[in-house]
Automatic annotation (TrEMBL), chains A, B, C, D:
Gene3D superfamilies: Haem-degrading domain (3.30.450.150). InterPro entries: GlcG_carb_metab_protein, PduO/GlcC-like, PduO/GlcC-like_sf. This is Glycolate utilization protein. PANTHER family: PROTEIN GLCG (PTHR34309:SF1), SLR1406 PROTEIN (PTHR34309). It comes from Methyloceanibacter caenitepidi. SUPFAM superfamilies: GlcG-like (SSF143744). It comes from the Bacteria.
Length: 144, 144, 144, 144
């Protein structure tokens, strides 16, 4: 499971701080390495529709150990993973979801952010990840 | 919750009048600011498949505080929100859904219309909104 | 499809009048003979959770051509239809849903009401049905 | 929408404190008055299966403006609301979900707690509610 509650709260707090800096209103979700929700917050005035998107960005990033935006490049029409969004009760494959990888290169969870442009969403997610580690996994095998 | 039943009935009545003017058969849905259904009607000979589309257009417009067609321009292949329709148990991102914003700039609900061309759907939705307010939200923060 | 919009609005109006008489706040749904939503209204201060229940009562009554409460007697533990609620994306099998049967004994639609005690729900539904016909189907075959 | 993020965090913090006191590991969810998720946390070692239960307890309490346990007494076999759990994409009707009602008697949101005995779940939920108000709604009409 890896990400504990203290970790998750640090991630969310860092992400929120960045969201405020950018003058945005975000939904922020953190899942553990099993892709199960650990913590979530919806800032005031954030879109209601972003609740589910933030959570799905986090689960998507965890499911495949990669940034949601990277997956989205593979799921465009004509690309190898076209339509992958139909799996797993719905994926979100545009930026804003990032894996959280610890110093040993182990995937310990993921963060998903939704509420502004995808660039802002990504930047807020990255600020959250930076508290605990990085978003890039080493070459396989990488999962415990 | 915002939109009360009297409001919702006025919105639907104005939308229906426009639908008749355009010689169309529409499904018309109104949701409150929590995206929960307040009132719905299916005109005779409207497509059965439009029931769910009208309701999803209304919830989509409410979830993101914007016209469904505006969201759809961002969700095309190669665009930033490609695949967003997979969230929230299904979004509809072509025209026909509009937020309802009151004179104080507060999102009080949304309307969704389906049953004809998307231009007609949009026109009927706009006629409904006009009874209560406008569809454009002011800059953030805009939600209670 | 049978129930036209004029019919459905008469049914809902009669049901609403009864709901007011009983000092209750109801969700009222009417479906056609294909169990597809024709009209819906949520009275102010009605439970949000009653939206789905009212619609499911209407579809349940239509699916089986009988009062939801009658079906519920058969779906209790140890009874022949125990667990039938798991079908059709969820049935509601307590009172408040009634078929609408015309003077020729044909099922033309159904009404579902939720928002108060099941006795009140049933009474409001019955007031709606009375505008168009009865709730009892003749012996099979009864469907067009 | 009513419950803002500051409110929700106070509710969760009070609930967590009570959970620690009781030596339990809980999932705690807060929804706004539209039954949309506002904040969530899963304590370390809480059951993964409690994530969804905590959220559904919160939405259930909000949908009907009553304690989930009160609804559960009405949904037992042979009781008036038997099978109501099949509505609204799944309700949870045992204790641990409570409405949050402000000093004006308005439903402003709800809390759901899962992770221990239902008595403990309820006690933790009640500790959360106490920060903002009460769980008992006045007689109708009670919703904005």
């Amino acid at each position: 499971m890896h990400v504990n509650l203290e970790n998750a709260e640090q991630v969310i707090e860092a992400a929120r701080k960045k969201a405020v800096e950018l003058d945005t209103q975000m939904c922020i979700a953190v899942v553990d390495s099993g892709a199960n929700l650990k913590a979530f917050m919806r800032m005031d005035d954030a879109w209601v529709g972003s609740i589910d998107i933030a959570i799905k960005k986090a689960t998507t990033a965890c499911f495949f150990g990669m940034a949601t935006g990277a997956l989205g490049q593979l799921s465009q029409p004509g690309k190898p993973l076209y339509g992958i969004e139909h799996s797993n009760d719905g994926l979100i494959t545009f930026p804003g979801g990032l894996p959280i990888v610890d110093e040993d290169g182990v995937l310990v969870g993921a963060i998903g952010v939704s509420g502004s442009t995808v660039d802002n969403d990504h930047e807020v997610a990255a600020a959250g990840v930076a508290v605990l580690g990085v978003s890039e996994l080493p070459a396989h095998p990488w999962r415990t």
